[in-house]
Amino acid sequence: MILSVNNPTAEHIQGESDPSLPGRIRYITLPTKQIPLAIRWSFLLFAFSLPFQGTGFTFMSGSSLARISGLLFFAFYFFYYNPLSEKRSFPPVSGAMWWFGGYILIYALNGFLVAEEFYPEWFSGLITLIQLMVLFWCTSGVLDNETIARSFLFTYALAAFIFAAGMIVGIQTFSVTSVGSDRMTALGHDPNAVAKLMAMAAVILIGLYLNTSFKHVIGKILLILSVPVVLLAMVQTGSRGGTLAFMIGCLVYSLPFLKSRRKWTAIVLVALFTSVVLYFAVTSPAFFERLEAGYHGNLAGRDLIFPVSLEMILERPLFGWRPAELWYEIASRSGWRGL
Fold first, then answer.
1. Going by C-beta distance under 8 Å and a sequence separation of 6 or more, which residues neighbour residue 169?
2. Do residues 154 and 143 touch, judged by C-beta distance below 8 A?
3. Distance CA 226, CA 161 (A)
4. DSSP helix/strand/coil, 184
5. Residues paired with residue 4 on neighbouring β-strands, in sequence order
6. Would you give per-residue pLDDT tens digits along the chain (339 residues)?
7. What is the C-alpha end-to-end distance of the chain, expressed in Å?
8. Which of 104, 92, 103, 98 is nearest to 140 (CA)?
9. Is residue 91 classed exposed, middle or buried when 0-12, 13-18 and 19+ CB atoms within 10 A define those classes?
10. Is 98 helix (H, G, I), strand (E, B) or coil?
11. Residue 322 dihedral angles phi and psi, to the nearest 5°
12. Could you tell me where the beta strands, DSSP code E, fall in 25-176?
């Protein structure tokens, strides 16, 4: 942590002066708050497991790599951060978390109104929301450390790259399968879910390249070379929504860099990889077929779901529809019997 002191008489402070402002600025270096090693490594393991969250273990029924690594992270976190610890405490609750907590409260109160047949689904959703609340609370303190935040993003992107490479090459361990009209997926994931994972990874890789903390030229080259692999896997899933999400995600690099010296680097990278995605989309028969179908109005049922959803919102604009029950109502009105 670097602190500056506007005091020309503070000669006892250790550090160097800013050469552009002699005698005016003194810098002192304070040690950054250390996060226990067990928490850091379990957190990175959790990041690595996210693209493989559908991977289960034959010796542990119902368990997945992501679930086990998440529980391991929680165990280490609550071991070091707990009410009995004198040195460490939980991070403060942010404003965003208060809003999230309000949403969970409203969801919980709806449990008194949910029909009995929908109660199991409502309760499962409530448990998931509480778990997410605890996860966000814990990680908000860990991610305050910029080094760990950058390592988390890099680890996730690395795992996604391995997933993408395994799916493209067709490694048997990844259980690559074809869904519908040659839409590719792996490890039992839904193709749309894989596309979302790849879209996030590609955006992260571009961001890591633009981050000035990465100084090594070879590392930056490897980051750039890994992006097309991830994008190819994304297009092979045939997900139009995932591809659109990547293009929209790239826009986050437009505004922050407008006044930066790296503005043109960001613009060139976004234009380059958008072109790469378009090339992959046009040369992929399955994806191009889905694009044509979408152009002619075939949106995989969304053309029915969206109007029905809007109709339901207008019917109950204030209190809305109860959890779990709303999905069955949408299915009934749209004529979909997938639930």
1. none
2. no
3. 7
4. strand
5. 27
6. 444 444 443 434 344 444 444 444 443 433 445 888 999 999 999 999 998 876 554 444 456 778 888 899 999 998 888 777 777 778 888 889 999 999 999 999 999 988 889 999 999 999 999 999 999 998 988 988 888 999 999 999 999 999 999 988 888 777 777 766 678 888 878 888 899 999 999 999 999 988 877 677 888 889 999 999 999 999 998 888 889 999 999 888 877 666 667 778 888 888 899 999 999 988 888 788 777 777 666 777 777 888 899 999 999 888 888 888 888 888 888 877 554
7. 53
8. 92
9. middle
10. helix
11. -70, 150
12. 25-29, 56-57, 60-64
Write the single-letter amino acid at 206: I
**Structure-block tokens of residue 97:** 């978390």
The identity of residue 303, as a single letter, is D
> Torsion-angle region of residue 4: left (phi > 0), alpha (psi -120 to 50) or beta?
beta
Question: In degrees rounded to 5, what are phi and psi of residue 29?
Answer: -110, 125
Phi, psi dihedrals of residue 20, rounded to the nearest 5°: -75, -20
Tokens of 180: 């519908």
pTM: 0.79
